[in-house]
Design brief:
With 325 residues, the protein is of the alpha/beta class. The chain has helices spanning 15-20, 58-70, 98-109, 140-157, 171-181, 202-208, 228-240, 254-263, 274-285, 291-305, 315-323; strands at residues 31-38, 44-46, 54-56, 75-81, 114-119, 133-134, 137-138, 161-164, 190-195, 244-248, 268-272, 309-312. The chain has a single domain, classed as Aldolase class I (TIM Barrel, Alpha-Beta Barrel). The protein is 39% helix and 17% strand. Strands 1, 2, 3, 4, 5, 8, 9, 10, 11 and 12 form a ten-stranded mixed sheet that branches. A two-stranded antiparallel ribbon has the order 6-7. The relative contact order is 0.13.
Amino acid sequence: MYFPAYRPRRLRKNENFRRMIRETRLTVDGLVLPLFITAEKEFKKPIASMPGHFQLSITYAVEEARAARDLGIPAVLLFGIPARKDETGTDAYSDDGVIQRAVREIKEAVPEILVVTDLCFCEYTDHGHCGILTEEGVDNDATLEIIAEAAVVQARAGSDIIAPSGMMDGAVGAIREALDEEGFDATPIMSYSAKYASCFYGPFRDAAESAPRSGDRKSYQMDPANSDEAMREITLDVEEGADIIMVKPALPYLDIVRRAREEFDLPLAAYNVSGEYAMIKAAANLGWIDGERAMLEALTSIKRAGADIIITYFAKDAAKLLAGR
């Protein structure tokens, strides 16, 4: 029987061999933990569709940021649930808005951790869309004005990274111009550059109370069938001044993550979204899969595809396992 001179199994025969030749290294350094913060006081409500995650008052959010820091997680990503919603989402660009208050308190209590602020209006508007709504739909250019205002307010509160997620045309450019004019030229932008109109956001919409009251977001988020369009979207954000680009969701779009890695020489983030998290958790709870192995395999696949930064609800669980390796 003929065997080739090279036998791949020679280097798989025990864990030390496998460790030495491992091509992709998953570490805590690139993980970002999302947090959902409410305007309530002393409030911690479990999110049924996202086991292990909660809607948190600012006090509890500070505790979560401290716990993340202690696990070596470098950053948290904040989403706000305001006490009151209105047509234009004014809490998002108020100095006293829930996220601005949370940023100040987290940065005071845990100055070592990076605070990333999501910049969108779906959590803040009474209609649940990501900008100013008219009879024709979301008014892109009118929304840019409040996007710019919100970016400055977030930066003034102490946000380390502004992360626009609404997929409005020209948003990165409007933010960059506004930040620079107000003296925040050192504040980077992590843009949700290729954000798809995905069903995998379902649990997030429960957590953030952000489901649209009518219609959907397909006129501004991307068609899941498109790949070339994602490269055009990312190109626009890069030209407008994005410092970090992002693909969202991650697992169903690993091909997009790979293309972005190959075509753009900027730090690349991928968002391991709520539906991806919930599926693994649900299957693990039913005993159908090994939840810890599935988590690490999923995160490793995102890293292997080319992501430098992984935003994931698994961040704390992964950090604990990685520390034990």
